[in-house]
Specification:
Largest sheet of chain B: 4 strands, mixed
Number of strands of chain A: 28
Structural class of chain A: alpha/beta
CATH architecture of one domain in chain A: 3-Layer(aba) Sandwich
Oligomer: heterodimer
CATH architecture of chain B: 2-Layer Sandwich
Number of helices of chain A: 22
Distance between the termini of chain B: 29 Å
Structural class of chain B: alpha+beta
Radius of gyration of chain B: 16 Å
CATH superfamily of one domain in chain A: Dimethylsulfoxide Reductase, domain 2
Largest sheet of chain A: 7 strands, mixed
Number of domains of chain B: 1
CATH topology of one domain in chain A: Dimethylsulfoxide Reductase, domain 2
Strand content of chain B: 25-35%
Strand order of the largest sheet of chain B: 8-1-10-9
Helix content of chain A: 25-40%
Shape of chain B: globular
Distance between the termini of chain A: 57 Å
Strand content of chain A: 15-25%
CATH class of chain B: Alpha Beta
Chain lengths: ~700, ~180
Amino acid sequence: MMASRGVSTAADTLRPSDVVSKVATTCDMCFWKCGAIAYLRNDKLWKIEGNPLDPLSRGRLCPRGTGGVGAHYDQNRLRAPLMRSKKRGQEEWVEVSWDEALGYVAERMLKIKDEYGPEAMALFSHGIGGSFFKHTMKAFGTPNLAAPSYAQCRGPRDVGFELTFGEGVSTPERTDIRNARCLVLIGSHLGENMHNTQVQEFAEAIEKGATIIVVDPRFSVAAGKAKHYLAIKPGADMALLLAWMHVLVEEQLYDRDYVERYGFGFAAFAAEIAQYTPEWAYAETGITPEQIRQTAREMAQHKPATLVHPGRHVTWYGDDAQRSRAIALVNALLGSWGRKGGFYFPASMDVPPYPYPAYPQPARAKADNPEKKYPFAASTLTTGLRQATISGKPYPIKGWMVYATNLLQALPNQAETIRAIEALDLMVVVDVVPSEIAGWADVVLPEAVYLERHDDLNVEWFREPFTALRQPVVAAPAEQKPGWWIARELAVKLELEAYYPWQHIEEYLDTRLRAAGLQPATVKEEGIALGARQPIYFEEGVPVEFPTPSGKIEFYSPQLAEKGFDPVPKYTAPDEPPAGHFRLLFGRSPVHTFSRTQTNPTLAAMADENELWLNADVAQRYGLKSGDYVRLKNTDGIISAAVRVRATERIRGDCVYMVHGFGHTARGIFPRYKKGASDAQLTSRYKTDPLMGATGMNVNFVSLELIEEA
Amino acid sequence: MARFGMVIDTTKCVGCMDCVVACKTENDVPDGFCRDWIVEEVKGKQPNLSMEIRSERCNMCDNPPCVYCCPTGASHVEDFGQLVQIDAEKCIGCKACLAACTYGARYTHPEGYADKCTFCAHRLKEGKQPACVSVCPTRCMHFGDLDDAHSEVSLLLKARTHKSLLDEAGTRPRIFFLT
């Protein structure tokens, strides 16, 4: 920590007597984990800036990171451990001591272990803060550890790319946006979706004159930067991708040398896609054959520096792994994998794990995907664990620990989630703010926010390898404790202390840093340690390897054929909205993360409710104008809270759009109670991806319920 | 003597509001107010649309009506960077400047004085850039001396097409938008 006297004379900001100090740490306003410098003014948190040494933020945080100050000052935070005093979901609590809360949790966990085995405990977590809870749960003996970031977000993308190139896209995405000469965004709304590095590089690509092509039913911010905006019919993306492939092959525009050298099954692939003409795709997508040909040609003109972005939240229609594979295949035709301006090979530093004792081997395999129903699922399926909890098959799940993920807003079909919770003997939520899922807990454990705690090291895979440290900037305001402390104390009460040979996380962090040859004092001062840059493109000497079964890029996939799936992607037309209905689409706001930030006062000042984007002509037909409120009713009869209309040309007439994360119903977050609408509430239907079990959620249709003037 | 101004590239701005958040935390801007804000202008009919996004704030006009109308001299042009500033001690909260400002850039602080963007003069004096400029993830904002022909802002204005807001008001704004 460095301290200096404030030198400014601006009366409203700094007085000469003010003492300003700063601490380097990492942001946790989303999972990107940018390097940050937090400033204290007279020992109180003042502001947060990016750490200039950090390759992710390059000294600039996104609005959520800048607004992270509000996470500390949020008056709605959980303050003390709570145990429920009435029925689950009634949100009636008594405050208890940490000893009592953790004692209860440990006692119930041991009882579950006795009756059902340790595998009957499941952990749902999100973000790096979950790492010590995973450790405790593995030590306890359960393999059932899941995160919605797989089956409700990026899972299909990783499977689609793994099937094609043998490797996934990883996180942060290995997309070389900065060097792309042509960038294609399909539903990916960079600029509203504020993954910091991606947005910074997007702006850099614009400045360098890259051709931007945006495919979206909504005229996103990114669309406003595009040379070509393709206002696609929702759900028809696969048709466009197939037609692009058709043009690239038919007009011999693809990277023939690359495909001949590294491709497998190209002839079978080419024969299959010959049928998907732009004229055929026009009828499905609403995008003219001329636009399809023109964009395909421009993509080819800039190859291999043409990046067809794989997106991140891609759980849309239930055939998402195949659509992601189609995106991978367009990239394969353009030769962008492993090439500058396409997909680079990320590098990482060698930071050995802490030398823990070996975990016990669970007697039973994970419960989420019995008999490998979804053969290409590569991570645990949240919704699979939910189903196992409801059915008791393949074996009962009787306890949930939920860390930092609001499952009622993250998983589709809230009724199913509640049914699962009702089958539990123990339900624990660890979080920083109240949430809908916390409302259903038996025990709520309040965590210190990222500015008040250490977390595990972030040993990042990126262009430049680096290791970053999260460390406390300020003290927690009440009884909140860091996740590592909670996970460790729980382990102690479970008689698993042998798995925590360290007393304080600083011993753990120092051990790992020293094992990597790093000086803990330096990392604490700078917040980050940079590794040596390594080759990241084929042309820089990265070995050309594709860890698929054929060792090549699989244009035709024998793996898929063997399991009874389409070896080359096919198109399935989406369901049409019933009369008077619109497809419900949702996305991100640049100033909020999921449903976790709505009570942050700094960010709520930017946006404190979401809006319903409604095509201007449609709005006029309903007699609605911007600022009016409506409710949405889905085809299962579920009715949303009132949501403010945004009548706009920026969306097609067959769909409506809202930002995810609003419409809270938890009483613990009363200031935001039902402010805006919740897409999750209306997502009662979902389509499960047959390859890997992810839940496609853009399959719900809503009608407008007009609200009579009071 | 420097004459500070800003050049903002609308082709890169994504309207994320980071500039607004950074300003509010840097300057303790009270709840319910902001010194900078985002404007989105959409033209056309679906699907043939165009959109311009601008981060706006006090234009630090060379011909500032807020200064001319101030009865107490609270609104004044400072030597430092020739910036239009407000002396809160002298301000009587009469709101004449709020009415005079062409750009709606001023508000009455809950403590009773007129308030607005200062270009983060306290940061400039430390050799830093304004908070909004230094935070912007798209690096769409540029700050510098418009009277220095070799400054980044002057070079950008020479190289790129640009505009300023409500030129017809004759205020001679010192914020320019690259288009």
